[in-house]
């Protein structure tokens, strides 16, 4: 059945055809063609009349049908939609979010975001050295090196902040001769002239053993300066790659510290900024199981006393200890000047000889360490050490039986030890800095020890460190070392060139 639009379309086409008739008639060339065109035009006119009549008829029918339909019902006013019922799951998620945002650790971060600080900034200047020893050290009361707690994340529904950090490191070294260790620069390990391991010409090595992993847990807005700290590197075996070694694992509450970390005899704030991961021969390296207590007298003065594992090295078949080591230090800290620390230690050193006889000697020592802020760009580090029976805590002599030995008469003797270290750091710009370091360590062996036993060593280094990014460093360093034995034999001069790169996920 034809609809009105279809009929109107056909009518339009027929009308166009009629309008074209005069042009077609003018183009006719014979009487027959003209007669045929006239007949066609007459048929088209008749068809147009019929189509007009049909259109009028359909329009009348449509009008009649529209008038017979009932009027549409008035539109109802729209009703407001019923409120959605929150599901239990959605309600629980909202409550959890509210609880998280009200948790103490979240509020601690809000304090920092608003421009505040948590606790107090330590008067000790954080030097951002390439081989950082400062972060792991505990501080009295609520003092911290970074009151902005960069890199820490909140533990939901607790007052605890936690930071997971990784410091991938790679070192390339080139030595003029065999160094006794491919991965470390330790003068006490240098082969003596004439020994089978001496010489060797150039030696190159790559290692990543200085890579560190750490976890730092704090509750800065709770009384007691609660802290848990863990750190390891991969120097568990200096002749192999990536062997686990624990460096720190301790807990701190108020002034009490328990675990494995720096002895009160050591001063971690005086280590110079060397590319060499091992560090100078003459610094104190003493990390052991311990319990310590630190008391702050005021913002400048504090003291620490510790009872520590008696870890000593004796040239004897068996070592004995009747008491733990007792160490104490007192520090003066000033934001502008720097700090000074005086430390002391007493210990019982015991040994059993080949005949089964037991011997004991008193070990003791003192050391004075300081870091002085000469200018905004320059700092000086100094350490002086003296004592008897303390060589095992020297960075160089800790690889030897250097605390005590037997004399030619068969008596046990605590070995006299002294050392000195000085370092100077200059910052050329925000990106570049240099440090020069010198160290000397001296040990007086017992008369019964081997004549080629260690007597003294020298250490020197100079470097240029490029701080590529705030947490990414590249350093180049030249090192010099020398060792002499009790009988005068020496290692001769030893040189090393080192390139080191380290990246830290967080400051």
TrEMBL record:
Keywords: Signal. Residues 62-97 are annotated as: Disordered. InterPro entries: DcaP (IPR045748). Pfam families: DcaP. SUPFAM superfamilies: Porins. It comes from the Bacteria. Residues 63-86 have a biased composition (Low complexity). Residues 1-27 form the signal peptide. This is Porin. It comes from Persicirhabdus sediminis.
């Amino acid at each position: 059945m034809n609809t009105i639009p279809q009929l109107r379309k056909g009518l339009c086409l027929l009308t166009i055809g009629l309008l074209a008739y005069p042009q077609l008639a003018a183009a006719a060339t014979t009487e027959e063609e003209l007669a045929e065109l006239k007949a066609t035009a007459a048929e088209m006119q008749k068809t147009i009349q019929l189509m007009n009549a049909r259109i009028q008829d359909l329009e009348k029918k449509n009008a009649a049908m529209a008038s017979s339909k009932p009027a549409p019902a008035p539109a109802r006013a729209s009703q407001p939609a019923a409120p959605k019922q929150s599901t239990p799951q959605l309600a629980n998620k909202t409550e959890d979010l509210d609880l998280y945002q009200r948790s103490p650790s979240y509020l601690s971060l809000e304090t920092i975001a608003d421009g505040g600080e948590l606790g107090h900034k330590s008067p000790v200047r954080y030097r951002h050295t390439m081989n950082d020893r400062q972060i792991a050290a505990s501080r009295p009361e609520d003092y911290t090196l970074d009151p902005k707690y960069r890199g820490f994340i909140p533990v939901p529904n607790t007052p605890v902040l936690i930071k997971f950090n990784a410091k991938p490191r790679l070192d390339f070294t080139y030595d003029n001769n065999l160094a006794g260790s491919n991965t470390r620069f330790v003068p006490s390990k240098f082969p003596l002239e004439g020994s089978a391991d001496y010489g060797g010409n150039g030696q190159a090595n790559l290692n990543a053993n200085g890579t560190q992993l750490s976890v730092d847990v704090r509750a800065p807005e709770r009384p007691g300066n609660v802290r848990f700290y863990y750190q390891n590197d991969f120097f568990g075996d200096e002749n192999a790659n990536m062997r686990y070694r624990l460096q720190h694992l301790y807990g701190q509450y108020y002034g009490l510290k328990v675990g494995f970390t720096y002895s009160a005899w050591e001063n971690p704030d005086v280590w110079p900024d060397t590319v060499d991961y091992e560090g100078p021969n003459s610094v104190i390296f003493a990390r052991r199981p311990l319990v310590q207590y630190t008391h702050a007298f005021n913002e400048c003065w504090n003291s620490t006393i510790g009872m520590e594992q008696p870890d000593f090295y004796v040239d004897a078949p068996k070592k004995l200890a009747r008491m733990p080591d007792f160490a104490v230090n007192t520090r003066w800290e000033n934001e502008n000047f720097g700090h000074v620390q005086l430390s002391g230690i007493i210990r019982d050193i015991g040994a059993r000889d080949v005949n089964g006889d037991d011997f004991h000697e008193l070990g003791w020592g003192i050391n004075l360490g300081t870091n002085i802020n000469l200018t905004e760009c320059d700092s000086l580090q100094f350490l002086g050490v003296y004592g008897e029976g303390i060589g095992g805590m020297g960075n160089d002599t800790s690889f030897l039986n250097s605390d005590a030995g037997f004399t030619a008469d068969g008596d046990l003797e605590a070995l006299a030890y002294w050392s000195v270290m000085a370092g100077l750091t200059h910052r050329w710009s925000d990106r570049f800095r240099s440090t020069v370091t010198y160290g000397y360590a001296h040990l007086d062996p017992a008369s019964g020890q081997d004549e080629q036993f260690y007597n003294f060593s020298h250490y020197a280094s100079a470097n240029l460190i490029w701080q590529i990014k705030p947490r990414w460093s590249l350093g180049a360093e030249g090192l010099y070392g020398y060792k002499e034995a009790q009988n005068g034999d020496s290692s001769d001069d030893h040189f090393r060139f080192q390139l080191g790169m380290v990246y830290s996920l967080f400051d």
